[in-house]
Amino acid sequence: MLEIKDLSYQVEDEKEKTKEIIDHLDLTVEDGKFIVITGPNGGGKSTLAKLIMGVNTLTSGKIILDGEDISNLNITERAKKGISFAFQAPVHFKGIRVVDLLRLAAGEKITTIEACEYLSKVGLCAKDYVNREVNASLSGGELKRIEIATVLARGTKLSIFDEPEAGIDLWSFQNLIKVFENMRQEIKGTIIVISHQERILNIADEIVVIENGKVKKKGSKDEILPELLGTPAAASIACEKLGGDK
Ligand SMILES: Nc1ncnc2c1ncn2[C@@H]1O[C@H](COP(=O)(O)OP(=O)(O)OP(=O)(O)O)[C@@H](O)[C@H]1O
């Protein structure tokens, strides 16, 4: 179980004024759940994900994973505890091939065939990609899907995906939905997806709406989604529906 208690994250703006990006946020995520976090742009979703992963350091509060306070652990230590994170904008790894990245992620000596299976799951023709270097020659969408494949390969107890749909074309998006539907069915750990996409919200066990650095709403898909689609905040979801521009 992931417990976030009274979490705050502040930064100093250009005028040296303190800005509260995450504002005394409380959230409990039970094991084996597929959670989708949504809410208006700038509400604090990515920041929250980075705080859970340890990319950003919290100002105050606690992050507890399975009863253990991980607030003071660094990214590597948290990764070892079983947290994976697919960034909104994936990073390049010059000199490393896709297959190496998948092996590093899996943490064991997976065969090329197994590596290819992960790539196929995210809709990439494995033989075209498995030996390619993870550099700027890959498009944003390709990189994003490779990154999702690495999170699948890691298969950790907590996987966080930040806007997996960003930069993904229509065809690949259909595929991505299947990837998440399968993950949801075969769920071994907890999955947190940050998304504005109605089709991803539709497969959630629970939806969490984050606004102004706080949890505005939390509940089952059936409770939250109709309400969300009837509010002004829904405009951003409606605009980003399948085929819409991000
Ligand atoms: N280091 C920082 N310094 C100043 N402002 C920051 C910093 N990090 C985040 N912010 C601000 O905090 C707010 C929340 O950002 P965040 O990326 O978490 O939003 P989000 O909910 O993920 O938005 P989106 O839906 O657009 O991805 C934004 O206004 C952002 O500009």
From TrEMBL:
Keyword Nucleotide-binding belongs to the record: yes
Gene3D superfamilies: P-loop containing nucleotide triphosphate hydrolases
ABC transporter domain mapped to chain residues: 2-237
Organism: Lachnospira multipara
Keywords carried by this UniProt record: ATP-binding, Nucleotide-binding, Transport
Protein name, as recorded: Fe-S cluster assembly ATP-binding protein
Pfam families: ABC_tran
GO MF terms, alphabetically ordered: ATP binding; ATP hydrolysis activity
Domain of life of the native organism: Bacteria
GO annotations of cellular component type: plasma membrane
UniProt entry tagged with the keyword Nucleotide-binding: yes
